[in-house]
Amino acid sequence: MAKETIGIAVLGAGFIAEYHLAGLAAAGGASVRLLVGLAEAKTAALAQRFDIPEISKDWRIALDRPEIDAVIIATPDDTHEEIAVAAATAGKSILLQKPMAGTASGCRNIIRAAEQAGVDLQVSFMHRWFEEVEQARGLLAEGVIGRVHSVRIRNATPGADWGDWFFTKAAVAHGVVDQLGVHGIDLAGQLVGAIQEVSARTAVLVPTRTLRDGRVIAVENIDTAFAIYGFADGAMGTHEMSQVEIKGCDRFRFELYGECGTLWLRSERGRLAIYAPQRFGNEWHCPELPELPPGQRHHVAWLAGLTGRAPRLATARDALRGMLVVEAIQKSASQGGARIAIDEGRQ
Question: What is the spatial distance between Cα 158 and Cα 249, in angstroms, rounded to a whole number?
Answer without folding.
Answer: 10
